[in-house]
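*** Residues and shapes ***
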Amino acid sequence: MELPIKPKTPARKNPSFMILFSKPKAGKTTALSLLEDNLIIDLENGSDFVGGLTVKADSTSDLVEIKKSLIEMKDKGKQYKYITLDTATALEDMVGDLAIKIYKETPMGAKYGTKPGEDNIKKLPNGAGYLYIREAYERVINMLKQFPTECLILTGHVADKMINKNGEEVSEMQLDLSGKLGRIMYSRADAVGFMYREGNTCKLNFNGGGDMIVEARADHLRGKEFILSEMDDKGKIKTYWDKIFIK
C-alpha cells in the first residue's frame, strides 16, 4: 500500500447523507418539496398537502418496489438528484417485519412466531430485539444510499431524552429513535440539522452545543445557521437550498 506524501484536497463539499429533525409541523416536508429534483418517500402519509415529487410507502415491501423503480429509471439514464425519507420514526415502525425476518434467519430465532404474542421483536428479553431493528433499519438506509444521488436526506421529529452529563441528568433534544439507533444514524450522517420556525421564516441550525445534537462535516455548514425558507404576505414560500448544497 502506498501511503500519502502530500495532503489531499477534500473530495466532497456537500453532505451525501443528511439528517433534518424538528418539532412536528415545522415545515420540513414543505421545504423539501421545493428542493429541485428531490424524491420524497412519504412513510407517514404527510405529503398530500405539498407539491413536488412524492411517493408513498406503507411497508418495507413498498420500499423494495421503489428500489426496483429506481433501478429501472437508472437503466434508462434518469436518476433523482436527492432522495428524502420522511420520517425516521415512521421507518423504525415499518422495519419491524424485516427485523423479524432477520432474527428468524439466526439459530435462536428460527422458531420465532410460533407462540402467541410473538409478533413484536422489541418484546424480546433484555432488549435483544433492538439489535435486529437496528440491522433492518441500516439495511434500508444502505439500500437507498446505493443510488448515485447527491444526498440522501432523513427527516425526523425531535424527542427530549435524559442523558448523563458530568454526573448530572440533563435533557437533550435528539432525533426520535429508540435505543442506540439515533446515535448510529448520527455517526453515519455528514450533517445533522435542527429546523425551527421563527416568524415567517424556517431556520436550519448546524451550530452544535447546548441541549441539541447538531453538527456538520462540510466547511460551509459547520457551526452555521441558515434561513432555509421564508413566506411572504401572500403565502408564497421561497427556499434557499443553494446555501446547503453549494455548487
Notes: The chain has one domain: 17-195. The chain has a mean pLDDT of 86. The chain has six helices and eleven strands. The CA atoms of residues 71 and 197 lie 37 Å apart.
